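Field guide to reading this record: the first block holds the primary sequence, the second block holds the structure written as discrete tokens, and the final block holds curator observations. Each block starts with its own label. This record concerns Nucleoside diphosphate kinase, catalogued under organism Canna indica.

BLOCK 1 — SEQUENCE
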Amino acid sequence: FLPRLVAAMEGVEETYIMIKPDGVQRGLVGEIISRFEKKGFLLKGLKLFQCPKELAEEHYKDLKDKSFYPKLIGYITSGPVVCMAWEGVGVVASARKLIGATNPLQAEPGTIRGDLAVQTGRNVVHGSDSPENGHREIALWFKESELCQWVPAQAPWLME
Ligand code: IDP
Ligand code: MG
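BLOCK 2 — STRUCTURE
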């Protein structure tokens, strides 16, 4: 199985997924992790973390001119978040589909935001928007030593 598995790794991407403080406070951690796990992506990093203000500002630096930016930084630093690094072929766009539209009222039923949230300012989860940002954000939120390279036992049953 292993040579075929390595061949299947062509086009592999990584994405940074974060359960925001509302998701943690509302007890949705297991539910949200479970959706990515069941889909079949590979979990490479996972931690509960109190985000410092400087890190939140760096993560959301592209939004610093938006009117909601101060509230966004307050929201993300208001309590612990769950940081995750997920790997897989096409994982960036697929994770964004699992998450759903930014405004939960416009997110499709079946998506995380569509099922579990009502407001843009409390939309429970973050997902990187491009493979480049996936790399950038994982490097921003994780130390190299916090990431595991491993092959799950179920790998040959997920990828041919
Ligand atoms: P995304 O999380 O779906 O990629 P972005 O446009 O990158 O959406 O915005 C980042 C985050 O900023 C959103 O997930 C949401 O928490 C917050 N945000 C975006 N637009 C608004 C808004 O109009 N009001 C309040 N918060 C917002
Ligand atoms: Mg975004």
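BLOCK 3 — OBSERVATIONS
The mean pLDDT is 95.
Residues 128 and 134 are 5 Å apart (CA to CA).
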